[in-house]
Amino acid sequence: MRSTGRYRYFVLSVFFLFMLLHQADKLLIGPLTTPIMEQFQIDEAKMGFVFSGAILVGAIFYPVWGYLFDKYSRAKLLALASFIWGSTTWLSAIARTFPTFLASRASTGIDDSSYPGIYSLISDYFPPKARGKVFGFLQIAQPLGYMIGMLLALLLVGAVGWQGIFYITGSLGIVLAIVIFLGVKDVPRGKSEPEMENIEPARVYKFSWKAARELFKKKSLLFLFVQGFFGVFPWQVITFWFFRYLETERNFSDDQVLITMVISVIFLAAGYPIGGILGDYFFKKNPRGRLIVSAVGILSGAVMLWLSLSIPTGDTVLFTISMSITAIFIPFASPNVLSTVFDITLPEVRATSNSIQYLIEQGGSAIAPALAGAIAVSSSLHNAILYICVGAWFLCFLFILGAIYFLPRDIATLRAQMGERARQEAATA
Q1: Which of 76, 138, 178, 205 is the most exposed place for a label (fewest CB within 10 A)?
Q2: What share of the chain is helix, strand, coil (3-state, %, to 5)?
Q3: Distance CA 391, CA 401 (A)
Q4: CB-based contacts of 257, cutoff 8 Å, min separation 6
């Protein structure tokens, strides 16, 4: 099995491209909000249900995908997810009434919950000490995908309409499905763990209910699950409403929106690998290192967002600079929390553990866009963004501290389990 050398970087590149284009498709709905609302003659509250529908469907499918990824070929399942992405996006484009658009857009959430398979597969190509920066690199695709989606929306909506843009991104999903099906190979679960170095596993490790139940005995993981419930609230609100906030409450022109968002997204993209690299560095010195970096990022992001939204409406330059600084800190936790989940879970239930984490995150945050829309109708988008984001990040900071306290013993337990597994494999070789 080609699990090392250049091939693993080919696999990493394929999934980076998948996430980049998938995020562009998924997040197009943000910059296309205004023309969609105008076509269907709906207000912010109804549009909030469009956002929340896909999130809720994705949350429901997380445990399904997690179980399948831990039991069957992750590569083939990811090809299926890419095909579903393309198909459901086309369904959204052909919808002609609001109820059908609401239903078809909700169906796009099915493939949104496939990412645990990517992270699980990639974790078996790269060792623990490198996962922070590898995951950070993959997650650059999220803000860059948003920027691509924003550019597509601004540059093409006048020429082909919002439906035409969905046709384009949906077609790319079908093409990538073929690339993944033909070009990406699976690898034995746990192959990259340090204890399994130079050992060719005789046993195929797959999902087991016993290993899955053990997840809920890990105290640090439970704290990470709880913080995840609140952690995606800010992401959903900023992703779906910030574009309209700039348009309607800060009175930005199209050019000002483009400049501000592009600069902020570039800084946001940089935050993922910076956070991942810092996490890897401090993890080598202390098992709590990754979560300490996460806590610093969460607290700094909350403070900077509050300061940014306090800047007077007319001061466009200062607002853009402040939001760019904010954007660097916001993603610090993402690659480090993900790497920490894999630092304490057995390889055969990593997609499941990641899916549980995302299920809790998306299940909780599914109400965030609709809640923000309701607050915007009764108050303002400024208040909706401020209250939801800062409040959620403060709670996340507290729960991360709890995970930091219990983490070392959970890491030690996994290392002991992998050591015993390596000894059993060596004895049967």
Answers
A1: 178
A2: 85, 0, 15
A3: 16
A4: 243, 246, 247
- Type of residue numbered 75: A
Domains and CATH numbers, the chain: 6-189+214-428 (1.20.1250.20)
Kindly tell me the burial class for residue 382, based on how many C-beta atoms sit within 10 Å of its own C-beta (0-12, 13-18, 19 or more).
middle
For residue 332, give both structure tokens: 């610090």
Distance of CA 49 to the CA centre of its chain: 20
| Cβ contact 230:392 at 8 Å | yes
Backbone angles phi, psi at 332, to 5 degrees: -55, -40
* Sign of torsion over alpha carbons 217, 218, 220, 226: negative
Structure tokens at 240: 């779906």
* H/E stretch holding 18: helix 6-27
Q: How far is CA 244 from CA 127, 164, 241, 247, 380, in A?
A: 42, 21, 5, 5, 11
pLDDT tens digits for range 228-249: 888 888 888 887 788 788 888 8
pLDDT tens digits for range 184-230: 999 888 888 888 777 776 677 788 888 889 999 999 999 999 998 88
- Specify whether the CB–CB gap between 345 and 123 falls below 8 A: no
What are the C-alpha distances in Å from 312 to residues 213, 308, 320, 382, 403? 51, 9, 12, 12, 38
User: H-helix or E-strand containing 236?
Assistant: helix 233-248
What span, in angstroms and rounded, lies between the C-alpha atoms of 220 and 413?
12
Calpha distance 204→281 (Å, rounded):
32
DSSP H or E segment with residue 376 = helix 368-378
* Dihedral (Cα; 68, 121, 192, 402), 10-degree rounding: -80
Compute the distance between CA of residue 44 and CA of residue 225 in angstroms, rounded to an integer: 30
List CB contacts of 162: < 8 A, sequence separation 6 or more: 28, 32, 35, 36, 39, 153
Global pTM value: 0.81
Q: How far is CA 421 from CA 72, 103, 123, 343, 351, in A?
A: 21, 47, 18, 16, 20
d(CA 150, CA 33): 11
